[in-house]
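Minutes, project check-in
Item: structure for the 171-residue chain
Input as provided by the requester:
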Amino acid sequence: VQLIFQDSGSAFNPRMRIFDIVDEPLRIMGKRAAERKDKVLSLLQSVGIDRNMVDRFPHEFSGGQRQRIGIARALVSDPKCVVCDEPVSALDVSIQGQVVNLLMDLQRDLGLTYLFVSHDLRVVRYVSDRVAVMYLGVIVEIGPAKDIYEQPRHPYTKALLAAMPRKRREV
């Protein structure tokens, strides 16, 4: 199990270069240097970070790029499950879509399971097969995403869905 933080940038050591940040779990696991280098460079490329950028520091990247680096770091140790803690909430809407689509592609390609934590019900609906709704720290409703969104049972779930922004109708 690995974690993708809400703000990956603050989770990084600002004195470490990006390559070393992504490489660190492999180094700790005792993997050989050559194997680590190939895997880190390949993974960074798969999340959209060019190999000529690996010697830069975290502050030299945009929020979306840092989140992509955080995704690479979470995936470098080949987890089966990734906890995504509000992974797109700190990003601009256009970048949110790119990162969510990247996560979905990686899930499909790598056979990952995500535990996706979010307050953004639109994102939750897009990424989830099953949804659990929590109220005051207790799960009050759980089930297939379609059921939760189309036939909510708990009053809190109903209130959350009623508060969701709706598409504007053209006049």
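Outcome recorded: DSSP finds eight helices and five strands in the chain.
No further action items on this chain.
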